[in-house]
User: Fold these one by one.
Assistant:
Number 1:
Amino acid sequence: MLLCPFPCHYKATHKVMTKKEQLFYKSNPYNIKQGFVQGQLEVNQNIPIVNVGTSQIIGTGDLVAIDGENLLSLNINKNRIEISATLYDQQNRLAAKIMNNEWVSGNPLPWDLESGFQWLKIRRKKRDIELEIDARAYPINMLANIWKNQHNLRFSPKQIIWESAKTHVRFAHKCFVAMKIEAETTNSTFTLSPDPRIGTFAVITDLNRKKRIRRGLKIWQELSKKKGLK
């Protein structure tokens, strides 16, 4: 089958694209029609769970909001996860915006940007990672360095960390289900809130990662089923 050299042929060769998809894209050159240069992040996972350091977040919808602005969300579309994120730098300038797995704004030139079809890494300098998404593994791995009005939320390799002049919060080895992180920089407050569609959330503490994930997924299935969520 003849496919464009990049990205279609490369995706097909590395078994990221199914045969059915190959046939469809051969007759419908989506990237050309949509004007995508680098294509989109391919996420084949359909279970709404991400690893953030040693913890996990399970659920859909808005996951992080600071000063009322949603900065990180996770949704299921056509049986696949879609990630949206807004990143500001320490001077509160918009650095990057990713919408439904696609980089849609922000100047990539000041950044050290590396990407593949199922992974993305954005950093200012060596070891200074602003956002890293790796969808090659299950669950998806995510690291993030989120700034807003001189306040900082980090998904580091070991912890979830919120730091401000008045508040310091750290989490490790937790599984958050149907939960939203909300913060206000005017009074340096940090809150764990339930998904408003569900009205309740769960935090699971277990050093055994597999057990923690199993318990979290079971709770999510029960809660989301009651509300008809995906």
Number 2:
Amino acid sequence: MNITVAQLIAAGVGPAQARTFVDPLNAAMDRFDIVTAPRIAAFLGQCMVESGNLVHTEEGLYYRDASRLALIFPSAFRTAAEAAPYTKSPQKLGARIYAGRNGNGDEASGDGWTYRGRGLLQLTGRANYADAAVGLARPYLEQPELVAQPADACLTAAWYWHVHKLNALAEANALDEITRAINGKAMLEAGLRRQYTREALLALA
């Protein structure tokens, strides 16, 4: 089955985003067999949380408050004073917080900024971009900004879903396990992800 603009709106997506994403979403979901109501609803629920209801396809890294930075990224900053030079500087911050992670080089390489979170499920890190590039035959390492465009934002999300075998978890209604596969131990907004999934299921009914 495919999702319609009206169903996306009923699930909580804004009208403009629904019109922009309906075709790329359906193409990506068809490609990776996200075609039953439980699969579509769970996929959409996760994508909506990760992208702010399909509004943001690129990670925002602009922070004004050093204390908040230290709180959010404790592995990168031990104190607010240490975080202060990275406020109001998204490029510098991205290079720091993602250095040496997910296949990225050190802070000086700038990989953390270049391969920051993009797409509906926030593909992050050189290694993940490289895997998606191979899996989808797309030039993501050379042109990482492609992942923020609607077609590739949807395609990389559906590819990640497929690679992590999340269709089976969706059919089993194992929503927290899906959240763990996407968000890791943090399980951020797990309740909201369940809520969005339920609302999407109602919209698809």
Number 3:
Amino acid sequence: MTVTRKIDRVQLIPVQLPLVRPGQSLPLILQRALLAQRLRLRRGDIVCVASKVVSAAEGRIEFLNQQHVTRKARNYADRFRINPALAQIVVNEADEILGGVKGFLLTIKSGILSANAGVDVKNSPRGTATLWPADPDNSATVLRHSLEIKYGTGLGVLIVDSRVTPLRLGTTGLAIGSSGFNPIMDNRGKTDLYNRTVKVTQTNVADDLAASAHLLMSERDERIGLVIIRNAPVPVKANVSSSLKLAVRKCLVCSVLVG
């Protein structure tokens, strides 16, 4: 007997946002944008918000001309041909710097292997660099609580940035913060097509969703700062403690890089 899992048609709904300024209420901005498009959040929706939108509202923006450049930052700037002020911000933000190439440092930030510790001048006001939110999971949780109160239903929230994949050209979506759903689907102990027990595989649900949203958000001036993922096969739960973080010693890439 063949058992087929029923999955509803997944919808991705892009929502254009205005430019967000430091100190503005992000929940209110999202609510007004949804209203303008005659949209209302439904139970189980995954609300994907671009990280720069969250960072802007939280004031996570640094002026390049206000940086005191240390010797360490200047050495990285000279070695990898990076703006010294930008290098200083990356040094401040990174938990660890593994190396780099022209224009970029390879870093570990909050357990994520990333370029420039998430610091970016693209789509940041002129003369500034935008940082990741200080605590992306908390930012997602605070936003989720506000939206759930407004719309009276259970939601998931995902904060999305972009990243590069080793030996692959171009960027894809990255979940730097999530709330309201389990970011990992554990397949261990279940069986594969040939009735063998799965021993290792876990599905990174959060990054899969982030990649879908990133496809619509794009990287230029589209201002699609919000994407609603509707009918995703992801149960919404109020309290989730799972983490996407993997110890360096267990990571195939980082264990080789760090040694």
Number 4:
Amino acid sequence: MAGHLLTAVDRTLSLALGLRCAVCAAPLETVAAGAACPACWSAVPRYAPPWCARCGVPLPPWRRTSLALGCCAWCRRAPGYISRLRAAGPYDGALRGAIHALKYGRRPSVAGPLGALMRHAGAEILAEADAVVPVPLHPWRAWRRGFNQADLLARRLGLPVWPLLRRIRATPPQAALGAGARRRNVRGAFALGPLRQWPAALAWAHAFHPLEPVRNRLRGASVVLVDDVCTTGATLEACAQVLRDAGAREIRGLTAARALPGVATRRQ
């Protein structure tokens, strides 16, 4: 009885608010559906193997046997700090619309369905990890948005959340930058943060908080960096370097989507 009542209330709220699917603009039957309708959620493309064993970039099937350890050419040249990286799917279609609704449409309810996609796609990444670490926003941007989308996603992955990083330098958006410019843009932009997370309005308090407890927690730990979208991996690598320098044993990465211009993906 209670379940039917909640469903009725949910549908009534959705009609009253006039919520529409962020992808196809169809009316949403329930608030709990998040930003997209069931048809669009089911149409979200997923990455399927073969993919690079390290960064998760999709590979043509015929190249799998020609690559050492199944890694792409970029990962063989520049291994980086992240041991393995995966994304739920390409930054396109319903997945792109859902992420935009979360970040720019201020619809945090979409974090639930996105987190479910990430748990499924990143099961091997999350397995036996000690915790997830969300990529931080600059305090000013977090205050303007009202939340950090990476933190919302991290809290849906079923592992302890360690918000141990802070963004100490405001940087221009990465979207319009090339690979080299992205790396330069985020170089030195992140640092360790205290175990206690101060509100964005009191971000200055971070500088006066001891960091030794953070280093003690990270020492020898296996952690998973979490963000909404990965393109070149520059932001994740910059965060991973801070964690590795603080003593983390292994850093993996998991994102909701991967932006891969010019790379064909397969539907699963």
